[in-house]
Structures are given as structure tokens and as C-alpha cells.
């Protein structure tokens, strides 16, 4: 299942919020188009642009075996002026926002029928 993992709260992302840009971690299998539609449907905002990059893997040891953490991407979503997304405070951890591709396609089809 494809998921939007969490919102990122760092110094850089805090500066970007002032420019109406929001940062999220996403599974690497999602495309920019899917992420854009997800953000527009889930948050009810209009997305102007998106930038993404893959973060490096981290090494993990399980006894004598060396492994790696799963790949994921970091995306920066730029919203139209007048729109915003509320990010949870630092102290509280949010669960992953699970969003299935099939659900996304179903929502998009129903949205087109309404128009």
C-alpha cells in the first residue's frame, strides 16, 4: 500500500512554510501526479508546483547481517496564494496517512462525474 508517511518539521521546512511550501516524506513508488491529486483531495488545496528528491538509505545491523532502511522520497509542495495546510505541533506524532492508489482513482473518477 502506498502511503504519505509524515510531514517534516525542520528549520528549512519552517522557512518554506512562509513561502507557502510544505514538506512531506512519501514512499518512493508514488508519482508526482498521484501526490498532487492526493494533496488536492485530502487537504482541499490547489498545488502550483512540486519538487522531490530521494533521500539516502541508512544502514541497519541485525546481528551479523547488514541491511538498509527502505527508500523514500521527500517532496516539497508549493500551494497557490490563499491556501494553507495545518501541520501538527512538534510534540505530537501523527500516524502515517495511508492512501491507496485505487482509492485515489475512485475519488478522481467521482470528482470528474460531478463536473
Automatic annotation (TrEMBL):
* InterPro entries from the UniProt entry: Nucleotide-bd_a/b_plait_sf, Ribosomal_uL23-like, Ribosomal_uL23/eL15/eS24_sf
Gene Ontology CC: one annotated term: ribosome
Keyword Cell wall biogenesis/degradation belongs to the record:
no
This protein's source sits in the domain of life called Eukaryota
RNA-binding as UniProt keyword: yes
Its biological purpose: Binds to 23S rRNA.
How does it associate, per the subunit comment?
Answer: Part of the 50S ribosomal subunit.
Q: What protein am I looking at?
A: Ribosomal protein L23
Q: Name the gene.
A: rpl23
Amino acid at each position: 500500500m502506498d502511503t504519505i508517511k509524515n510531514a517534516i518539521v525542520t528549520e528549512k521546512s519552517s522557512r518554506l512554510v512562509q513561502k507557502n511550501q510544505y514538506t512531506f516524506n512519501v514512499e518512493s513508488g508514488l508519482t508526482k501526479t498521484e501526490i498532487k491529486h492526493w494533496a488536492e483531495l485530502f487537504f482541499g488545496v490547489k498545488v502550483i508546483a512540486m519538487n522531490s528528491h530521494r533521500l539516502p538509505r541508512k544502514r541497519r545491523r541485525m546481528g551479523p547481517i547488514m541491511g538498509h532502511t527502505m527508500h523514500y522520497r521527500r517532496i516539497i509542495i508549493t500551494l497557490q496564494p490563499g491556501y494553507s495546510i495545518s501541520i501538527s505541533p512538534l510534540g505530537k506524532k501523527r500516524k502515517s496517512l495511508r492512501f491507496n492508489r485505487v482509492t485515489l482513482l475512485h475519488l478522481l473518477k467521482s470528482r470528474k462525474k460531478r463536473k
